[in-house]
Amino acid sequence: MNVDFHFDVMCPWAYQTSKWIREAARVRDIQVTWRFFSLEEVNREDGKKHPWERNWSYGWSMMRVAALLRRGAGGLDGNDAVDRFYAAAGRALHEDGVKVHTPEGVAAVLTEIGVEPGLVDAALADETTHDDVRADHEAAVALGGFGVPTLVLQAGTQRTALFGPVVTPAPRGEEAGRLWDLVAGWTEFPHLYELRRPKTAADWDHIGASFTPYIEARDWRTIERPVA
Predict the structure, then answer these.
(1) How far apart are CA 185 and CA 227, in angstroms?
(2) What distance in Å separates the CA atoms of residue 101 and residue 97, rounded to the nearest whole number?
């Protein structure tokens, strides 16, 4: 099965899900294509600038750099380059508490994956990188996407968009494969819309502990739109 994985580097949930799907792809026949989604845009407050109207916009600008990598800049295979970039940036922010959402932070991520850090300036100077990020974002929104992680599963001609799975920590090995089996099973039920586990106080303690590096590193106020 082919999967478009829409992510925003800034989201701790999407990062955990990305770790899971990499594990699942080791033990199941899954081809993952990394796609963009902007939490800054989907949660933009009325009267505020769109992320593409700012000189630097945390997640959006990071994805502009990834968009240039996807075109082959930096000498790496496009999809693999985005995978490596996201894995390195996500680990730095969500596990190490490093502020990667600055030009200097992104340059350090590029250096880690073996790409010249000057690619940051090149991505910002290329206005068409806005178009790449916006195209992926709008494709997910057109399928009903409202946040990340959004997965678009394709088997034959059937395309199914799902939000989630929302899990921390990411399952590994065969556990990741079994979770994939459950997620992929949703494609059999086109009108199965939601299944959700209520969170207890202990769950919130667990989530808070898991996301401490991210919470300490972030420089923004989290905004979530209500979902119908």
Answers:
(1) 23
(2) 11
Are 67 and 130 in contact by the 8 Å Cβ rule? The answer is no
User: What are φ and ψ of residue 111, in 5° steps?
Assistant: -60, -40
**pLDDT for position 76:** 83
In a domain, 18, yes or no: yes
* Residue 222 within a domain: no
- Confidence class of residue 77 from pLDDT cuts 50, 70 and 90? confident
* pTM score of the predicted model: 0.93
Q: Total domain count for the chain?
A: 1
**What does the chain come to in residues?**
228
Domain hosting residue 146, numbered range: 2-217
Distances (CA, A) of 119 to 37, 65, 76, 110, 174: 21, 7, 13, 8, 37
Q: Is residue 13 part of a domain?
A: yes
CATH number of 157's domain = 3.40.30.10
Task: Give the three-state DSSP class for 153.
Answer: strand
